[in-house]
Amino acid sequence: MEEEHEQVQVRLRQRDPRAATIAQRPLTKLATIQARLGIIGSTLLEYVVGRAQSWLFVVTSTSVRVFALPDEETLERQVKAVVAAARQPGASLPTDAYALFRTLFAPAQELITTHDVIIAADGPLHYLPFELLPLTGSAPASAAHGATPAYLVRSYAVSYIASAALLLPSVDRSAHTPSATKFLGLAPIDFRNGWESQSLPSSEDEVVGICSLYPAQTGIALLREQATKDALRTLMASGCKYLHLATHGMAGDSSLLSSGLLLAPDSTTRDGYLSAAEVMALTLPCEMAVLSACDTGLGRLIRGEGLVGLTRAFMSAGAGSVLVSLWRVNDRATAELMKRFYVFLEEGVEKREALRQAQESFIVAAPNDRQHPDWSSPFFWAAFVLVQ
Question: Are residues 78 and 220 in the same domain?
Answer without folding.
Answer: no
